[in-house]
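can u do me a favor
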């Protein structure tokens, strides 16, 4: 069972993030910065819960094992999120235009020249999928590693003591 803890927590966490992403998209909130913070927080909570469960269910778990479990959980979340992102962008191609328009508005608010704006918009359109996936992979891995390092530092407190015997004399 302990071998698959990272998969179960990774799948559940990724599904929660995906569900929220779809809800944010349907409510036209996907362009809001705070929605990304919520997804990142959920990723970190999922990794923390995974190494906590691993530490509790694995006798003699070392810090490196706890870190490795957190990293494997991060990898599972990242792979599932990657696949979802690719499919989601192809199913809803208007996401690309929304992002491009938002970038255009920000650049106009900064009083950038029209040629600079157009150049940036053209690059964004050409590289959209690569940019979205690259940033997503990068941030998932970084914040998953942070949560895994937290587990390395404090995860051993969660380890189940199997040497303690509880005699219940009822």
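np, heres the sequence
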């Amino acid at each position: 069972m302990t071998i698959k803890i990272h998969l179960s927590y990774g799948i559940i966490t990724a599904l929660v993030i995906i569900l929220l992403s779809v809800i944010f998209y349907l409510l036209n909130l996907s362009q809001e910065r705070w929605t990304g913070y919520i997804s990142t927080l959920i990723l970190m909570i999922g990794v923390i819960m995974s190494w906590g469960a691993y530490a509790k269910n694995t006798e003699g778990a070392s810090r490196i094992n706890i870190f490795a479990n957190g990293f494997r959980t991060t990898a599972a979340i990242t792979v599932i999120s990657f696949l979802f992102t690719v499919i989601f962008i192809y199913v809803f191609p208007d996401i690309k235009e929304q992002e491009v328009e938002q970038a255009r508005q920000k650049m106009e608010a900064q009083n950038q020249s029209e040629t600079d704006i157009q150049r940036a918009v053209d690059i964004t359109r050409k590289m959209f999928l690569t940019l979205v996936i690259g940033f997503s992979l990068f941030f998932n891995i970084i914040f998953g590693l942070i949560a895994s390092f937290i587990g390395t530092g404090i995860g051993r407190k969660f380890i189940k003591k199997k040497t303690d015997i509880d005699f219940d004399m009822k």
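DSSP finds five helices and no strands in the chain. hope that helps!!
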